[in-house]
Each structure stands twice: as structure tokens, then as C-alpha cells.
Design a protein that fits this description.
heterodimer, A: about 850 residues, alpha/beta, Aldehyde Oxidoreductase, domain 4, 3 domains, seven-stranded mixed sheet, B: about 170 residues, alpha+beta, Ubiquitin-like (UB roll), DNA polymerase, domain 1, 5 strands, about 35% helix
Chain lengths: ~850, ~170
């Protein structure tokens, strides 16, 4: 292990580069939970059936924006088989994932804000009874004006969707400036101004959200739920149910896919918990697919404007990014998303001066939130397509241009993010080589083309969602006389392989097999807190906690074995389920005997480990979004064939290189890369969370265009191209065994690479995602008519931006703090306190 | 005495073969095969993602052919053979498809996996040496949101070779 500086690794016998190869880490392996998955025995939330279990259904608003005048539940309550009817007054306390936007209620009180907002719940003996009784609830609505998109939100300050936020229907405004950007533009040889639009999309996990709650025999509450964030759900439940958190146990069942869509505390979870407490019997809910579309929390639609100054050689002199973000009806992660949309531009290429202005508005649509890449795929698309345009104008190959300006390892960016290892240049060189880029770019026949794009992503958010100075992840290990080791950790298995990561790290350190390890994860009672499966944080954070706990256990066992064998502790090796003298390998004991020796010598053996990310140098307000212990990098080349008669795009091949640090289990890493590429391709070509207004003679309401899997198009096995994956492995000192993230990064370069490839193929710029046949045909028509061969937004509306917080970048002597004090908007601050009187 | 709503009345009854075992089951007559398998027979290996025949997660084999169990009334299944993921392995051993899916990363979250496994089994039963394109075609009605399908193709191909190997060696 070169460059391994982590002191934890030197506790006993840090693996050396030679003579002590790794047995688990880096070896393609069957994941620990694979057998359960291929036998159908993985117990997802809806697979839980308990005696006396009742079923819950939610009555959802048919209106995008309305006042609730009255709800009459008497007919429903009298229906045979109905046990309980709940409305907003039964669970009135507001909650939300972020402390700054506690704007949701489990069942709406006074107002509904999007089609699908829940207003009442029925709990019945049978699911169908509950469903039938929904029709017996009478709700009297007063229809309010609907805000359908951000431009309408800017133009329509009244009625306000929420009584908090910046003003009118603007939820959040961000303005940050790192260095004098105007000066940067003065120094530039060329200035590029481009607008882009990125349509929203949804996660579409195949498992619909489900939850089961019970009142334990001792009166406490247990809830099983398909959640990515059991710890945050735990906190929300305690607050809304007004119960001591110690009396609530949240068990995250393995998620049947999450992708960010199960990261918020949800109304249905709170409702079944409340119902189970009131009825003293198990209560289950499983959402229908249509309801999953209403839960949403998916990709924010973002309109973007990039202004970038460059020198003739491609060096960037300054960048100004503006975003207009469609937040939907609630806050969700939106404040973080608004910052994220401007955060990571600086992490791929050196940008000496940077200004970001972001505006998130409320609209009467299902709330947007974190989808794989959280807030960063949209601006990455704009940035990488603009870079393609810059390369063409400067007559530099797009790969060469990027190689000239890539960021370097351990750099601190203009916005004060400290980078870890940066192997973006190596990623670019590798895909250029394997894709035969130089022989293809601008050289393929008309209708065929290649496009290149790059990206970066966090390996775990540097700050938790609520302020605290405790670890982000904890692991406990129990060493058993049987030679087995049990891992207890709050980390949540959503399919990405978090259980396997924990098992692999512990098994590697202790020299045992991953199948000798038993896992107890995603349970707020059994294991120490892990903040959740989001922000690509689990491998690094839970992994480091597991590494620390395993090293501590190893040290204890080594003490006992060293004493028994009369061998210096430093000479002991843990491998092949044995603990032995490295100088005389026959001299040793089995791992089981070693544990017994340690238990006899020291008593019951258990250890703990925890992980807290390093302090970030970004000290300014807003600098909490974007810092990470280290960042992953990706570069991709996409090949397309464009049918110029139909506009249809076929993708035969994608090459992607990913800077992973170290692949803990290459089988799973490849799966994450290919899965990210797949999801990115879906966004690039077809996926859209779209809305339409019903005809005037009907309600004229704004409704979801495709709330079904049939009409929400996603790629099938027939659409999937060949993917050539190259892993760039330089262990990063921050990651366990050098590992960085892979769950989100590889999705990011796909959308811009597709758009760039379409341009290479047929010479039209589609500055909007998804790149659909219709848009290509429109752009081809423009091209034929001799006009600008482009499809995309033409303007960015006026936003009343606040004064920017000015932070001088490191090379201008900045210390990470702002030099001006932007006055807080006291009015909105006060309104934030009372939040949403209906 | 209050009359129970129809959904609480298990008035329908069928006898069929579930994973090779003669099975009698009583259920409310409106129920789909998916619901009866999961709710009345405790076979939760078969999943659901839409209940509208869109996602493919509920596929089972009905008389050897893949069907979407959310679109099949249980009442239609009397006398028929149903195979679910629970019936894939034999004598406590995993089916070669299950082994290959486990070893090669073809199951990530594992939610679409049971349906893809039985669909792939139907393919291999009917065509022991499918091409990559035939595999693509066979599972094109099963959405997987995690893998990007490639490791699934590879696992089906690996299982195909293993099954052919077993057959030729007579084991």
C-alpha cells in the first residue's frame, strides 16, 4: 500500500507493498448479501407480514394548489373493516430533512401544494378496504392559483406557496463570488455565453416505498422502512410524534433501489407510526407507483447561464454561473441543492475567479430533491457542453483542452474545497486511448459521432445535515469465541453494497473471510449512527470507522497471541483465518483460537471505530455544501448514431474511466459504473418528469404527464450500449485502503458527452436535456435553413440577485472567510420562525 | 353480525402446483396471482413495482412460460404449474443462474432479480445457447434500475455455459 499515511493503519502491522498482499480488498468477489438476493430472501419492507397487521392508504390531493376548507371523515370511519381515519390535526407538527426548511406535514393542514399531497389516511383490516374507503372522505377545496414553473414563480409572488423563504415564491437565493470575475473577463481572449436547460427526472427505484410500524410490547415504537437515512427518519419521528428518541427504533430494510429518492423523512412513514401507536397493532403501507411519482424528490429542472472567459490556449480566466431552479412544492434538500448546483464547477478544471448566483423557486409540483449526483449533473452538463464549444472555437481538440486545464492533486479551489487525489488527466488520457478518440473525433461519417465529457463528485458530504460535532459514522465489532465477527453499523444497504464494504474491510484486517462476518446494519437501536446512504459517503466514512474498529480488535488479539506464542507483536500476521509469526509462518494459531486467547486474557472482546471528516477550509456561509474528504473523477467518450430522418439517437458504445482510488470489490465497482452510465443515458435521451395542464373545461390543473412506468420512459436491456470501463487506481490517503466513491460520479459525464457526440455526428447543438428526436429534428431544420443549428433556451430571466458574498480565493490571500458582511433579510428570517401558517 | 367486505372473504379456492408441490389455497376472488403468492402463500420472493404490467418485477413461470403475475388472476391458475424464485434451486443448491448472478454482480439491490432469474430460466429451457441479442430480447420486459443490464447478460451467459457443461458431463 503506497502512500498510506493513515496512522490507524500502523497500529499493528500495516500491510506493506511487498510480501503482504491483500486477500479480500481488490479481489472480485461475490458480495456478502448475494445469496439472499438471488434466492428472493432479502426482506424488503413490503415483504414484512405481521400478525394482526392493518393496512394504510393515503387520500391525496387532486389539485395542485388549494385551500382545504373542510374534511368530513365520518362516512369513511363508519365503513366496515376501517379501523382508523387520520387527518392533519392528528399529526400537525412540521418537519423536513433540512433544519432550515421544516415545511412539510404528514397530512396537510389547511393547504395542499401539489397533486398527490396527502390530506387523510385510512387504516383498515384489508388494503382494498382502505382503498375503497378513500372515496368516502369528503374534502371541500378552494382552488388557488397554480404556479407551474420558476419563471411563473418569479412573476407571481402571490399567492405564496409557503409563507417563508426569500420573498414571494422564491425559496432560496445564493450569491457567492470568489475573486473579481469581471477582471477575469477583461483578461480573456474570448468570452462565451451559453444558456442550457436540464429537465427534471425521477429515481424510479423498482421497489415502491413501503413501511411497517408496530407498538412494541413495552410501548415503544419500531418502524421498518425502505429509507436510505434511518437516522434522519429517527429524528423526524421523535419530533413529530413528540416521543423520546430513545423510545423509537428505525430499521432500514434493504432498499430495492434508492438513488436519492428515499432520503427524506416521508409522510407515509409518520402516518403508519402514528397509526400503530394509536391502534396498538402493526400498520403497513406500500405506495402505488403513481404515489412514488408524487413523492418524487428527484432531479431539479434547472435553467442555467454560463459566462466563461478563456485565453487562446484554453486557460479559463473567469466563470459566472446563474441557475434558476424548479424546486417543486416543498423545501426537501432544496437549499443544499441550490448550493450544490454552483459548488463543484471548480473541482475539475482550474478556475481562478468564479461567481455563482442560484435561485430556487417553489412551484405546485411534487418536491424535487437529491437524485444521484444531487444538484451537480445539471451544471456539469452546461459546463462540459460549453467547453466543447470553446474547444471548437479555439481549434483545440476537446481532450487536449481539458488536459491543459485539469485540477491537480491536493489543490485548494477558488471556493476553498481541498481536493484529494486528482487523476482526471489520467482518466482523459485513458479514454482517449481506448476509444481511439483521435481517429474518430470529427472524422466519422455524417450521422455518426463521438463526444467527450468529464466530471467530479464528492466522496461524502463534509458536513452533516443538522449541526453537530459528533462522528458521521460509527462501527462496533463483537468478536465471538466461534471465530465469527459481528459488525454493528447504522449504514444502510440500498443495493450499492455497503454491507459488503464493511465486511471486506473487517475481513481484510483480521485475515478472515467476508462470509465469517455477520452484519447488523441500518438499525438505529443495534448499531451506532451512520448518517445514511447519500452523498457517496458510506465507503469512505463507514469504511474508515470499520477499519479503525478492526485495527483496534486486531491489536487486542495480537497482544494475547504474541504473549502466547512468545513472538514480538510486530511480527504477527493475520491471514487465511490464522494469526501467525511472519518470520515462521507455521508458528501460529487459528483465528478462532486467537479470539479465545484474547477473551481469556482481557475478557469479552468488542471494539468501536468512528469517523469524522477533516475540517474544511471553506469558512464562508454556504461553504458547508461541497467540501468532502476527497473527490472522485470520471471521463467518458460516448459514440452515437443519429438518424437524420427521424432524429433517433442510437448509442452503440461508451468508454468511461473512473478515478476510484482503490476498488474494494471490482465486481461491485464495475456494477456501479455501468449502473451510473445506464442512468445517465436514460437522463440524456429520454427520462422526463413532465407536467401538463388539463384542458380549461376540466380543472385546468397542473398534473403529472407520466405518473407510470409505462409512460415514463427509461432504458431497457435493448437500449443498453456496450460499456468499456477503465478504473484508475491510485489509493487516496483519506479513503479506507485508498477507496473513493463510485456510486454517483460515473453518471455525470454521460449527458454532456451524448450532446457533444450528437454535435459531432450531425452538427447540431442540443443545449437541453433530454436530447430527444424532436429537438434534434428542430435543430436540423434550423441548420438546413441556414440559421443557428441549435435547440435550447434563448434567455435567462431577470432575477433580483442579492449582493454577493465576496470570498477572495486562496491565491489572492483569502482565508476562506467572506470579506463583506451581507445583511440578512430579517423579514424572511422572522417568517422562517413561524413557518407556514396555512 | 356485520357482513365483511368481499376483500376479507376467502371464498375462492384453487389447487395448483407451486414450485413442484401440490398446493391448495383459499383467497378473496379478485386477487391476482402475485397477491395470492405473496399474501396468502407467504412466497414473498416475487416482487412488484407497478401492479400494471409495466416493470416486470413480478414475473413467474406459468406452465414454463414467463407471465406477469400482477396481470394474472389467481383463479385462472387452477391445475397449472407455477415456478417462482423459491423453486429455482434444487436439493439445497443454487441454480446455476443464481450462482452466476451472485458471483458476477448481476444482483445489486436484488429487487428485480427474482423475476429476471425465472425469465432467464425460461429462455435457457427453450434455447440452451442464446446469443447476447436473444438474452437482451428475453429480459427486455424486466426493468433493472441498478446494474445497466450488462452484468446480467454476462451472468446468463456464464450460467448457460455451466448448464451445458453439466449436461455434457451427465451430472
Amino acid at each position: 500500500m503506497p502512500d498510506e499515511k493513515d496512522s490507524r493503519m500502523t497500529a499493528v502491522d500495516a500491510p506493506k507493498a511487498d510480501g503482504d498482499r491483500l486477500h479480500v480488498i481488490g479481489v472480485p468477489r461475490r458480495r456478502v448479501d448475494a445469496r439472499a438476493k438471488v434466492t428472493g430472501q432479502t426482506r424488503f419492507a413490503d415483504d414484512i407480514f405481521l400478525p394482526r397487521m392493518a393496512h394504510c392508504k393515503l387520500l391525496r390531493s387532486p389539485h395542485p394548489h388549494a385551500r382545504i376548507r373542510n374534511i368530513d371523515t365520518s362516512r369513511a370511519a363508519a365503513h366496515p373493516g376501517v379501523y382508523l381515519v387520520l387527518t392533519g390535526k392528528d399529526v400537525p407538527i412540521q418537519y423536513g430533512i433540512l433544519p432550515v426548511s421544516q415545511d412539510e406535514q404528514a397530512l396537510c393542514v389547511g393547504r395542499v401544494r401539489h397533486v398527490g399531497d396527502p390530506v387523510a389516511a385510512i387504516i383498515a383490516r384489508e388494503e382494498l378496504t382502505a382503498f375503497a374507503a378513500l372515496d368516502l372522505i369528503d374534502v371541500n377545496y378552494e382552488i388557488l392559483t397554480t404556479i407551474s414553473d420558476p419563471e411563473e414563480a418569479l412573476a407571481t409572488p402571490e399567492p405564496r406557496i409557503h409563507e417563508y423563504g426569500e420573498e414571494g415564491n422564491i425559496h432560496k437565493l445564493v450569491a457567492l463570488e470568489f475573486g473579481n470575475v469581471e477582471e477575469g473577463f477583461t483578461e480573456a481572449d474570448e468570452i462565451f455565453e451559453d444558456t442550457f436547460f436540464f429537465q427534471g427526472s425521477t429515481h424510479l427505484p423498482i421497489e415502491q416505498h413501503a413501511a411497517v410500524a408496530i407498538k412494541d410490547p413495552d410501548g415503544k415504537l419500531t418502524i421498518w422502512s425502505s429509507t436510505q437515512t434511518p437516522h434522519y427518519l429517527h429524528r423526524a419521528l421523535a419530533m413529530v410524534l413528540e416521543m423520546p428518541p430513545a423510545h423509537i427504533r428505525v430499521i432500514a430494510t434493504p432498499n430495492g433501489g434508492g438513488f436519492g429518492g428515499k432520503s427524506d423523512p416521508f409522510n407515509h412513514e409518520i402516518v403508519v407510526a402514528k397509526a400503530a401507536l394509536l391502534l396498538d397493532r402493526p400498520v403497513k403501507i406500500c405506495l402505488t407507483r403513481e404515489e412514488v411519482f408524487y413523492c418524487h424528490r428527484g432531479r431539479h429542472p434547472i435553467l442555467m447561464k454560463f459566462k466563461t472567459g478563456v485565453k487562446k490556449d484554453g486557460a479559463i480566466t473567469g466563470m459566472h454561473l446563474q441557475t434558476l431552479i424548479d424546486g417543486g412544492a416543498y423545501g426537501s434538500y432544496g437549499v443544499a441543492s441550490t448550493y450544490y448546483a454552483g459548488a463543484l464547477q471548480t473541482t475539475t478544471y482550474h478556475i481562478p475567479r468564479y461567481r455563482y448566483q442560484g435561485c430556487r423557486t417553489f412551484t405546485n409540483k411534487p418536491p424535487c430533491g437529491p437524485k444521484r449526483g444531487h444538484g451537480t449533473p445539471q451544471p456539469r452538463f452546461g459546463q462540459e457542453v460549453q467547453l466543447d464549444k470553446i474547444a471548437e472555437k479555439l481549434k483545440i481538440d476537446p481532450a487536449d483542452l481539458r488536459l491543459r486545464i485539469v485540477e491537480t492533486s491536493n489543490a485548494v479551489t477558488a471556493n476553498f474545497f481541498r481536493l484529494g487525489t486528482v487523476n482526471l488527466a489520467e482518466c482523459i488520457r485513458r479514454i482517449v486511448q481506448v476509444s481511439d478518440w483521435k481517429e474518430k473525433f470529427r472524422k466519422l461519417p455524417e450521422g455518426r459521432g463521438v463526444g467527450l465529457a468529464c466530471s467530479a463528485y464528492l466522496t461524502g458530504a463534509g458536513l452533516p445535515i443538522y449541526w453537530n460535532n459528533m462522528p458521521h459514522s460509527g462501527v462496533q465489532l463483537k468478536f465471538d469465541r466461534s471465530g465469527g465477527v459481528s459488525i454493528f453499523c447504522g449504514a444502510t444497504e440500498i443495493g450499492q453494497g455497503s454491507d459488503d464494504v464493511l465486511a471486506a474491510i473487517v475481513a481484510e484486517v483480521l485475515g478472515i473471510d467476508t462470509f465469517d462476518v455477520r452484519l447488523f446494519t441500518g438499525d438505529t437501536d443495534l448499531g451506532p449512527v451512520d448518517l445514511g446512504s447519500y452523498s457517496s459517503r458510506v465507503t469512505l466514512m463507514a469504511g474508515n470507522a470499520a477499519l479503525q474498529a478492526a485495527e483496534r480488535g486486531k491489536a487486542i488479539i495480537a497482544d494475547a497471541v504474541a504473549e502466547k506464542l512468545e513472538v514480538p507483536k510486530g511480527r504477527l500476521r493475520f491471514a487465511h483465518k490464522r494469526v501467525f509469526d511472519s518470520a515462521s509462518p507455521d508458528k501460529g494459531v487459528t483465528f478462532q483460537e486467537a479470539v479465545c486467547l484474547a477473551e481469556a486474557r482481557f475478557g469479552t472482546i468488542g471494539t468501536v471505530g468512528s469517523y469524522t471528516p477533516p475540517k474544511s477550509p471553506a469558512l464562508y456561509k454556504g461553504g458547508g455544501v461541497g467540501p468532502s474528504p476527497t473527490y472522485s473523477y470520471s471521463a467518458a467518450v460516448v459514440e452515437v448514431e443519429v438518424n437524420q430522418v427521424t432524429g433517433w439517437v442510437t448509442v452503440p458504445r461508451i468508454w468511461i474511466a473512473h478515478d476510484i482510488g482503490r476498488a474494494l470489490n471490482p465486481t461491485l465497482v464495475r456494477g456501479q459504473v455501468e449502473g451510473g452510465v445506464y442512468m445517465g443515458l436514460g437522463e440524456a435521451l429520454m427520462e422526463e418528469q413532465e407536467f401538463r395542464r388539463l384542458p380549461k373545461k376540466l380543472s385546468h390543473a397542473l398534473v403529472h404527464k407520466f405518473p407510470s412506468i409505462l409512460e415514463y420512459k427509461s432504458p431497457t436491456s435493448l437500449d443498453m450500449p456496450e460499456v468499456i470501463t477503465e478504473l484508475i487506481e491510485e489509493p487516496d490517503p483519506h479513503g479506507p485502503f485508498g477507496a473513493k466513491e463510485v456510486g454517483q460520479g460515473p453518471l455525470l459525464p454521460i449527458m454532456p458527452a451524448v450532446a457533444n457526440a450528437v454535435y459531432d455526428a450531425v452538427g447540431v447543438r442540443i443545449d437541453e436535456i433530454p436530447v430527444t428526436p424532436e429537438k434534434i429534428m428542430k435543430a436540423l431544420a434550423e441548420k438546413k435553413a441556414g440559421r443557428d443549428p441549435r435547440f435550447g433556451p434563448s434567455h435567462f430571466p431577470h432575477v433580483n440577485w442579492p449582493e454577493a458574498l465576496r470570498v477572495p480565493p486562496p491565491w489572492e490571500g483569502g482565508d476562506g472567510n467572506a470579506v463583506n458582511d451581507v445583511p440578512r433579510r430579517e423579514k424572511s428570517r422572522r417568517e422562517k420562525e413561524k413557518v407556514l401558517a396555512p | 353480525m356485520t357482513i365483511l367486505p368481499i376483500e376479507s372473504q376467502k371464498t375462492a379456492q384453487i389447487r395448483f402446483t407451486l414450485n413442484g408441490e401440490e398446493t391448495d389455497v383459499s383467497f378473496a376472488p379478485y386477487k391476482t396471482l402475485l397477491e395470492v403468492l405473496r399474501e396468502d402463500l407467504g412466497h414473498t420472493g416475487t416482487k412488484h413495482g407497478c401492479e400494471l404490467g409495466e416493470c416486470g418485477a413480478c414475473a413467474v413461470l406459468l406452465d414454463g412460460k414467463p407471465v406477469l403475475s400482477c396481470l394474472v388472476l389467481a383463479l385462472e391458475c387452477g391445475g397449472k404449474q407455477v415456478l417462482t424464485v423459491e423453486g429455482l434451486g434444487e436439493d439445497g443448491n443454487l441454480h446455476p443462474l443464481q450462482d452466476a448472478f451472485a458471483d458476477l454482480g448481476a444482483a445489486q439491490c436484488g429487487y428485480c432479480t427474482p423475476a429476471i432469474l425465472v425469465t432467464a430460466k425460461a429462455l435457457l429451457d427453450q434455447n440452451p445457447h442464446p446469443t447476447r441479442d436473444q438474452i437482451r430480447e428475453a429480459i427486455s420486459g424486466n426493468l433493472c434500475r441498478c446494474t445497466g443490464y450488462l452484468q446480467i447478460f454476462e451472468a446468463v451467459e456464464a450460467a448457460m455455459l455451466k448448464i451445458a457443461d453439466q449436461k455434457s458431463s451427465g451430472t
